[in-house]
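User: Fold this; tokens only.

Assistant: Input:
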Amino acid sequence: MQLEILTPERRVFSGKVYGLRLPGIDGSFEVLEKHAPLVAALAPGRMKVLNDKQNFSFYTIQGGFIEVLDNQATVLVEGAIPAEK
């Protein structure tokens, strides 16, 4: 799946990923390849990006939204910085 992480100032990440774990406003949830279309609000917290089935990275995000459509996920947040594992 193609992932874009965008803030008002810049593009934080763009590339192919296996999946995501996100902090939703009603609890965390995952998005994997070929996920059904989705729009969801995000709470501040840690987002886990699954680069493949074994490698992952984290981002600390501020509130925002995610849109999933046609195997592409767009994360629109107020701020995002890479975080330690």
